Amino acid sequence: MFPGEPPNDPRMDPFGRHIDYLRISVTDRCNERCLYCMPEGYKGWAQRADHLTADEIVRIVESATELGFRKFRLTGGEPLVRADIVEIARRVWELPGVGTLGLSTNGLLLKDLAAPLKQAGVRSVNISLDTMDAAAYQKLTGGRIETALAGIHAAADAGFEVVKLNCVLLRGVNEDQIARLAAFGASLGMPVRFIELMPLAPGGPIDERHFLPVREAMRMLAVDDALDPAPDQRPGHGPARYFRLRRSGALVGFIGSVTCADFCTDCNKLRLTADGKLRPCLGRHGEIDLIPALRSGTAAGHGITAAFHEAIANKPENHSFAEDFEVLRPMTAIGG
User: Fold this and answer.
1) Average pLDDT over the chain, rounded to whole?
2) How many domains does the chain have?
3) What CA–CA distance (Å, rounded) separates 336 from 125?
4) Residue 321 pLDDT greater than 50, yes or no
5) Mean pLDDT of 271-275
6) Are 169 and 217 in contact (CB under 8 A)?
7) pLDDT computed for residue 198 by the predictor
8) CA separation (Å) from 287 to 200, 310, 323?
9) Residue 272: inside a domain, yes or no?
10) Domain enclosing residue 67, as ranges
């Protein structure tokens, strides 16, 4: 499916990057409908019954650890809508070789699940929060900000090693919220990461007109408080570049997924979609179907390992978001 030959070291991609991080989408279902993530009318989950079981997810992670993968993150859709999410987290964390386990969520179900997830082994949590305005939050996500905030506070109380807040920058929607979000994060000791809009929800009301580059967001924050680089700060394993607001002490990160020319230089991840596809890059097409290997009997383990080798050997140097990228699957179907 992909061009290229396997490198000498199967853990190293053709550009010298050590691949040891797997993001696992456990579902493409979600209890919100964020306008930049899920196209209007999307019902991919209703069209197939081939989503991975908990057993299959664990088998894939086990194969990944045998190759040297150490970092794992459970994503969606919204991963907490799976009734067995705590079981999945526990079983993944208990596998030999798993070094860290993270979770990405919108927070709506965290009030009741934060403590069980922490006990199951989740070490870090990323929570989406694009605005502090209740009406804007409802319009953008379809959810209630009060519920999300309750989940954020529960995460703070649960004692995770790291809790980060993620804000997708949207011109005309939330640029007036940037300073407010930074202050809110600082009040809870949580870094806030500002992320450029990626073209992954075609046909929706959010499009290129709403693109707001991270450098512009940085200038907005610097109007009232100096931004000091914080290169020693890197909570988690993401691509954000961190700064500290000098007066408030707030820690903020910026993810220039579209405008930063070297954004992909240190990329160390593969993605597993909810329907069992191994994807080397979020911003380029090409997927390896693991379902045949998973469901073919005794040779399944070898087939999964071979798929990982193929994905790593054919990982592209960079994404193609700035090259008229054509969306074949929206973000909710790929995994956040």
Assistant:
1) 86
2) 1
3) 13
4) yes
5) 92
6) yes
7) 80
8) 16, 10, 19
9) yes
10) 21-334
